Amino acid sequence: MSSQMAQELNTSLLNQHKEKHFTAGEIVRDIIIGVSDGLTVPFALAAGLSGANASSSIILTAGIAEVAAGAISMGLGGYLAAKSEADHYMRELKREQEEIVAVPDTEAAEVAEILSEYGIQPHEYTPVVNALRKNPQAWLDFMMKFELGLEKPDPKRALHSALTIAIAYVVGGIVPLIPYMFIPTAQRAVLASVAVTLIALLIFGYAKGHFTGNKPIRSALQTAFIGAIASAAAFGMAKAVQG
Question: CA-CA distance, 7 to 237, in Å (whole number)?
Answer without folding.
Answer: 68
